[in-house]
Design goal:
Arc Repressor Mutant, subunit A, 3 domains, two-stranded antiparallel sheet, 15 helices, binds iron/sulfur cluster
Length: 278
């Protein structure tokens, strides 16, 4: 059983957000396509890198129609610097599935490529003004620490959110939790002295154990090589022969991973050259 959330939590959080919320470009729109693009970009990329890429991407592909008409190779070029190119492929497929408008219900959104429960809920909240509970990493941390005294699991945080969210200001409530988690209730050493919820929080003052560093694993990972393959072909509009590609990428896994990228639809092979798929 969870204790009732003191009414002061909502008031303090929303007031803090008015003064301290991040000025992010997608917060200035409720256009569903723009909100979707921001959510997919932010899934696995730091916000500081998403913000400039978001503006450029929307200038290049201002609508679902424009994205659907564009060759995938152009979309992958516009995705440069964001990583996880499969998201660009999924977004492009999504646009070709629903080039006119996004569905405005959970089932319709979940049926689209690259859209999971979090993305569907975020689009419904920020674009369509619906009241749908959800939790990203920041929300898990803030609601978990506040009520449980520790970071919550996705299921726990979604349940807490469903009980406590501000129904008439759902978008603002979620944006405020995300911003508090990103700037004050941060992962290792929360800045409780700056937190508007400090006097109401069960987890106040806690310090979480550091997570194992994963950077070194990335340096040797297949993901790095896959990214390097796509990057090399971004700069080669006529494609590259497999041997040339391996020389540019500088890794013996190039051939195997390029074959996987062809199978996934990110690359195409024609006349013994590899290039970005169209
Ligand atoms: S008091 Fe500290 S632990 Fe609690 S929500 Fe604020 S920053 Fe997070």
């Amino acid at each position: 059983m969870y204790t009732p959330l003191p009414a002061a939590v909502r008031a303090r959080l929303l007031r803090w957000f008015d003064r301290n919320g991040r000025d992010l470009p997608w917060r200035r729109t409720t256009e569903p396509y723009a909100v979707l693009v921001s959510e997919i970009m932010a899934q696995q990329t730091q916000i500081a890198r998403v913000a400039p890429a978001f503006d450029l991407f929307l200038r290049r592909f201002p609508s679902l129609h424009a994205l659907a008409r564009a060759p995938l190779a152009d979309v992958l070029r516009a995705w440069a610097g964001l990583g996880y190119n499969r998201r660009a492929l999924a977004l492009h497929r999504l646009a070709r599935t629903v080039p006119s408008r996004l569905p405005d219900d959970v089932a319709g959104l979940l049926a689209l490529p690259g859209v999971g429960p979090y993305t569907a809920a975020a689009v419904l909240t920020f674009a369509f003004g619906r009241v749908v509970p959800f939790a990203d990493t920041n929300i898990r941390r803030v609601l978990g620490r506040l009520i449980l005294g520790r970071t919550a699991t996705v299921a726990e945080a979604t349940d807490l959110d469903s009980r406590y969210l501000a129904p008439r200001r759902s978008a603002k409530w979620h944006a405020a939790l995300m911003d508090l988690g990103a700037t004050v209730c941060v992962a290792r050493r929360p800045r409780c002295n700056l937190c508007p919820l400090a006097t109401l929080c069960r987890g106040r003052g806690l310090v979480e154990a550091p997570q194992a560093k994963r950077q070194s694993a990335y340096a040797t990972s297949d993901r790095r090589v896959r990214g390097a393959i796509v990057a090399a072909l971004r700069d080669a509009p006529d494609g590259l022969r497999p041997a040339e590609l391996e020389r540019v990428v500088g890794d013996a896994r190039t051939d195997r991973l390029a074959a996987a990228l062809v199978a996934e639809g990110l690359l195409a092979r024609s006349r013994s050259r590899l290039r970005l798929a169209r």
